[in-house]
Design a protein that fits this description.
The protein is α+β, with helices and mostly antiparallel strands and about 90 residues long. The chain has 1 helix and 4 strands. It has one domain.
């Protein structure tokens, strides 16, 4: 595993924030699986991409997914019960 810190300022993994993430790249034929783990919370995400993509772009996509998952985890729970996502209409 390698230590990975993206280089954009709004990321919680920027050097100023002091947060770390680990990433691992696993080649599987013509596909590549990238696993990103937040060291602080132990949250793990994975993506699968083309082996033709650069390792940097694959890691960045995994980091973006990790950031999205962490931001959803930090959102406060709404006061009202979760409403149905079904739209009005017919469902079979």
């Amino acid at each position: 595993m390698t230590q990975f810190k993206p280089n954009h300022d709004d990321s919680p993994f920027s050097p100023e924030q002091g947060r770390e993430a680990l990433s691992e790249v696993i080649a599987m034929g013509n596909a590549v699986k990238v696993i990103a783990i937040d060291v602080e919370t132990g949250t793990e995400v994975s993506i699968v991409g083309s082996a033709a993509m650069t390792p940097y772009s694959l890691k960045m996509n995994a980091m973006r997914k990790l950031i999205a998952v962490l931001s959803k985890m930090e959102e406060p729970e709404p006061d009202h019960p979760r409403q149905s996502r079904l739209r009005p209409g017919r469902y079979a």
